[in-house]
Amino acid sequence: MTIDPPPDLVIEVEITSSAIQKMKLFAAMGVPEVSHHDGERLQMNVLEDGQYRAVLASRALPELFASAIDTILEQRFGKGDTALVRKFRESLQ
What CA–CA distance (Å, rounded) separates 14 from 59? Predict the structure, then answer.
């Protein structure tokens, strides 16, 4: 782990299987933050005392809130990619 330390943040997007099963592995590796999207909503988790706890905002990216990501992603079928990216960028300012 000193040569190849764990990442500061893992983002999982679930398509067919649950990322929850990987949480113990991420905790054992010492990944401080894991976020996963289940196709409907984003959940951000931080590692505390060997366990992940759900949080509303990222610690790695403190201006990023799960609710903001959910709001943008709810619009993904009604807007083009460029408009969606533009709206996301505007939400961060």
Answer: 21
